[in-house]
Amino acid sequence: MSVTRFVPIAPATLRQEVRKSIFLANAANAASPEAALDFIAAVSDRDATHNCWAWRIGQQYRFSDDGEPGGTAGRPILQAVDGQRMDNTVVVVTRWYGGIKLGAGGLARAYGGAAAECLRLAAKTEWVVMSAVEFFLPFPILPLLHARLAEFSATIEHERFDANGAVLRVGLPAARVEAFDAWVVAATRGRSAARRVD
Question: What's 5-127's CATH class?
Answer without folding.
Answer: alpha beta
